[in-house]
Every structure is written in C-alpha cells, then in structure tokens.
Amino acid sequence: MNMKNFLPLIAGILLTNSVLAAPIAFDFKDPKGVNNAVFKLDAVLESINGTASGVTGQIQFDPQAPGTLTGKITIAANSLNVPNPVMREHLLSEKWIDATKYPEISFTVEKSANVKTSGNDTTADLIGTFTLKGVKKTITTPVKISYLKDKLKARLPQMEGDLLVIRANFKVKRSDYNINPGQSEDKVSDEIDISLSIAGQAPKAK
Length: 206
Hints:
11-stranded antiparallel sheet; 3 helices; 11 strands
C-alpha cells in the first residue's frame, strides 16, 4: 500500500475510534418525577428525615471508559421537604439553608478514583465540588453506576434510548456550610446523611 492510500485509511480508523469513544449525555430531569434525594439528621433528641424532589442535571458517561464520567447534578433547594410543615418553613429560612437566596444545591464531578466495572455496573469514588448555601467544598462520595443500554423504553414506553442509574450516599456537616452552626445540635444533628438514587435518560433519534 502506498502512502497516498495509507494516510486516508489511518485517518478513517482514528475518526471511527473517536466516534465510538464519544461519551453519552444523560439528562437527569426526570419526566416521571421519581428522582429524589433523601436526607437524615439523627440528633440525640430528634431524628429528622426528609426528601428533595427537584433533581436536574446532565452527566457525560462513556461505557468504554466509566472513569471519565463528568457532569453536574442539581437539586432545587425549595423542593426540600420534611413531614412537619413548621419545621420545613424553618429549614428553608434564612438561618438554615436560605432557599430564596441560594436556590440550588449541587454536586459537580471533577474526577473519579477506584473505578471497578463488572457487567453493566461500575463502582467508583467520585471527587468533586458540593455546593450548599453558597459554600463550595471538595468532597468524595462512593457511587454505583448502572449503564442500561436500550432500557429507556422499559421506563418510558414512548421513548427509545439508554438509561444511567446512579446511587450514592455521603455525609456533610451543616456547620461547614454555615447552616446555623452550633445551634440546636441536640435536636438538629450537625451531620447530614444524604442518599441519591436517580436515573438519567439518553433518548435515541427515531
């Protein structure tokens, strides 16, 4: 093969490989409204359990290279809810998370570590920036990521495409985020336990 024919062949192979390696964009704004976060503050006198339903965001995931995952997940602060309506009013107030001034709680993925894949499932430690009440802190959270090729229709019958399910559990301290630090710790724990179980969709064009 002469050089004139060889160079286009190499270029074609490189182009094909780059297309195959392209990450898939998954949208976490859930049409079913099922995606949510669960939080718990387990103090000496009281245990507060709540949910947050306003989950949005986008994750870039390459099934051939799961450790390159990037993206951002956001929760609407005013979607935080606890069973006691007075307690919820306090939670959203200026002294606590100040949902009016700081309407978003977010986690931006910067890199991954300890990535292990078996079949459709990947476990990893995601390292990134967690933002709450305007304060940004670098945290590490263990996650389980399930890539479900062509399974979007099983969840949303009107759509074809892939699903990405992310499960995570991590802890933060409210005092680190200026959430009424040092106050009422016998009733409102300083430590906040947060769990996520969310699904993102990557529809395919028909």
